[in-house]
């Protein structure tokens, strides 16, 4: 019975041991965070995502605090009724860079840049469609007339979009040495937005793996125990 006892002890200690294993890092999503910071954040916000949530992408607490502190968010009004702002903290959401909707529309030919928090979840086609849009800008064909502030894009059924092409080869330098081509950056930021839109997906997969491993081991020990009981019967 000593072996059985050792096995039972192993089962009891399994969850803490598994909990110490690091989560798998998503390198494309981490690079995508860099694309968002340096490109997308100039026009877009993520109202349902806090700066502190970026720790899930490997951003250090100091880097998060520094990024947040560089952003100003609304903070009521002063004694004269004028709006006040304050530096953001890690607990604040990543708001749009525009102070209000009217300013956002004024800066973008009447169109308001969409919030990116859940775009990969709500846009038909998800993250792959985001990637396709970023890579489908093309010169306007002869005979096609677009309104001011519109750009030809073959990924959309109406063939135009209000966002100018945001990506250009070599506009960023990735710390890991990956070449920042337009295709690479589109892939990376799409992966980042997909993870942002599904914030607990990795954790659910990890917990599911732990549960399956635990149940499989319990089933094995139950089978072994049953065999021992039946062998011991006269």
UniProtKB/TrEMBL annotation:
<protein>
    <recommendedName>
        <fullName>Cytochrome c1</fullName>
    </recommendedName>
</protein>
<feature type="region of interest" description="Disordered">
    <location>
        <begin position="72"/>
        <end position="97"/>
    </location>
</feature>
<dbReference type="InterPro" id="IPR036909">
    <property type="entry name" value="Cyt_c-like_dom_sf"/>
</dbReference>
<keyword id="KW-0479">Metal-binding</keyword>
<keyword id="KW-0812">Transmembrane</keyword>
<keyword id="KW-0472">Membrane</keyword>
<keyword id="KW-0732">Signal</keyword>
<dbReference type="InterPro" id="IPR009056">
    <property type="entry name" value="Cyt_c-like_dom"/>
</dbReference>
<keyword id="KW-0408">Iron</keyword>
<keyword id="KW-1133">Transmembrane helix</keyword>
<feature type="transmembrane region" description="Helical">
    <location>
        <begin position="207"/>
        <end position="225"/>
    </location>
</feature>
<keyword id="KW-0349">Heme</keyword>
<dbReference type="InterPro" id="IPR002326">
    <property type="entry name" value="Cyt_c1"/>
</dbReference>
<dbReference type="Pfam" id="PF02167">
    <property type="entry name" value="Cytochrom_C1"/>
</dbReference>
<feature type="signal peptide">
    <location>
        <begin position="1"/>
        <end position="25"/>
    </location>
</feature>
<feature type="domain" description="Cytochrome c">
    <location>
        <begin position="27"/>
        <end position="197"/>
    </location>
</feature>
